[in-house]
Design a protein that fits this description.
The protein has 22 helices and 2 strands. The protein is an all-alpha fold. The protein has one domain. It starts with 7 loop residues before the first helix and ends with a helix.
Length: 492
């Protein structure tokens, strides 16, 4: 096995170690700092030239993530998310533990497909834990449901999670469209979401009872603090209603000039807010329609984001600084550095040669090949993390190289050597996403739920993984079977 540019191997190993843990005591630079640091070292070590490093960054992926973050932040800023939480969970008095479990799973899975899994985990965890405590339900099963449903649901679309966003950019040359991906992945996600929720109901049957020790303690706490619950203290209040915002400062009151729209008006503040809310929903719908119409996915998402910013400026006369401040810039920087590091590793020829050794067993045109492909991707995602592993497979060159008219070698994408390239990308997206459900440490979404809900319930590695391991293996292969069967029925 011939290895070129050997200096990149230790650079990748160090980058992997920095990514695997949020912060190391001996070098607390964090994942984002570690990623961009090793990206710079890649160029400094002459693995790649600066121009090549810039070319390695998938700007379409960054634009997609940025645009969707902007739209989600406007939804949260306009309290639309809060309104949904209020209607479906906080003020829904018909929810038994079982009904709540199914509602959480379906709600989380559906919205994760549109607004990313990490976002939904952040939006739901504290609200559901608060609801469980007030009603005397054990929050453990619901926390597991949020994490697993978010991952499964996000696998339905190319905008559901970061690795799918990367696949959207890398698979563009194969002709895989947003709509085509949705057709095959949506059914798999829907089936597996139902199976997963039913399994949750059976596995956590004891914790879903209302007469558990946790329920008794929670009920006693609630009876002892009725007055406090009636007036919602700052520490437990998660939703701010319109009645809480009646008092405003003089600076917040709009002038007659500020309450006009393009020389029309003046309008009441509430009228402007309602108008912007409707226009925001329309913007999101048009963005999704543009995805389905096969517009360039990165520019479409970015266009939706800037359209929301423009509408906010025209209708509400607000500057977007508050929204831009809440964008996860660290994630975008993290991906930028990671693109360079992975592209540098490809220069060593190691990933391509390693995958070439497995190529004959990874062919997706037979059942054995699909099962082995699923196993390899699952193991790889749990060793390297799903985003780096997707990049490794997506950027790897197959064997043999082709030559241009000038005699220069041209990279033949490894994914195109596995059979139908579009189907291979769909399989990769599904497996790399759902594989995160295997253990508590398997995905960022799982860790977000554990961290956000730790004040209510310490979800241990064993509590999650004893259920996650067996059911994830089932949903992984069941989803692959659904996708494969549907593909064979529609491509003949």
């Amino acid at each position: 096995m011939a290895v070129e540019k050997f200096q990149q191997i230790p650079i990748f190993i160090i980058a992997w170690l920095l990514i695997m843990k949020e912060k190391w005591e001996w070098f607390p630079i964090g994942r984002t700092g570690g990623s961009i640091l090793m990206g710079v070292v890649t160029v400094a070590a002459k693995t790649m030239e600066p121009e090549e490093a810039f070319d390695a960054i998938e700007y379409s992926t960054l634009a997609l993530l940025w645009g969707m973050m902007i739209l989600v932040e406007y939804l949260k800023d306009d309290a639309l998310f809060d309104g949904l939480m209020d209607k479906f969970f906080l003020k829904n008095d018909t929810l038994t533990p079982t009904k709540l479990l199914w509602l959480v799973s379906m709600f989380c899975g559906s919205f994760s497909a549109l607004f990313t899994n990490d976002t939904m985990c952040i939006a739901l965890t504290k609200v559901i834990c608060h609801v469980c405590t007030k009603r005397g339900y054990h929050p453990g099963p619901f926390m597991v449901a949020i994490a697993m449903s978010a991952n499964i649901g996000s696998g339905a679309t190319l905008i559901g999670n970061p690795q799918n966003a990367i696949i959207a950019a890398l698979s563009e040359a194969s002709g895989l469209s947003f709509a085509k991906f949705l057709v095959y992945s949506l059914l798999a996600a829907a089936v597996c979401l139902v199976i997963n929720t039913f399994a949750l109901q059976l596995w956590f049957a004891e914790d879903l009872r209302t007469d558990t020790e946790f329920a008794r303690i929670a009920s006693e706490k609630n009876r002892g603090s009725k007055v406090q619950d009636a007036n919602e203290s700052d520490s437990t209040k998660l939703i701010v209603s319109s009645e809480d915002t009646d008092i405003v400062t003089l600076e917040e009151l709009p002038s007659l000039e500020d309450s006009s729209i393009c020389c029309f008006g003046p309008f009441q503040r509430e009228t402007l807010q309602n108008l912007f809310r409707r226009l925001l929903v329309v913007t999101i719908i048009l963005t999704l329609v543009a995805f389905l119409a096969d517009f360039e996915i990165g520019w479409t998402a970015a266009g939706g984001g800037v359209a929301a910013m423009a509408l906010d400026a025209v209708v509400n006369h607000k500057s977007p600084e508050r929204i831009l401040a809440r964008v996860n810039w660290e994630l975008l920087i993290f991906f930028s550095g990671l693109f360079v590091v992975i592209a540098g590793l490809q220069e060593t020829q190691l990933p391509g040669e390693a995958l070439d050794m497995l190529e004959s067993h990874l062919q997706i045109d037979d059942i054995a090949g699909v099962m082995f492909f699923t196993l390899v991707v699952t193991i790889g995602c749990n060793i390297f993390n799903n985003v780096p592993f997707v990049l490794l497979m997506g950027l790897a060159c197959g064997d043999p190289y082709t030559e241009s008219s000038s005699g220069e070698p041209i990279c033949t994408p490894f994914m195109s050597s596995l059979g139908d390239e579009q189907l291979a990308w769909i399989y990769l997206a599904w497996v790399s996403t759902v594989a995160g459900n295997l253990t508590l440490m398997g995905s960022v979404a799982n860790l977000i739920v554990a961290e956000e809900g730790k004040d209510w319930f310490e979800m241990s590695f064993g509590y999650y993984s004893k259920f996650g391991l067996p059911i994830t293996i089932i949903t992984l292969y069941l989803g692959v079977a659904v996708i494969g069967t549907l593909w064979s029925l529609t491509q003949d």
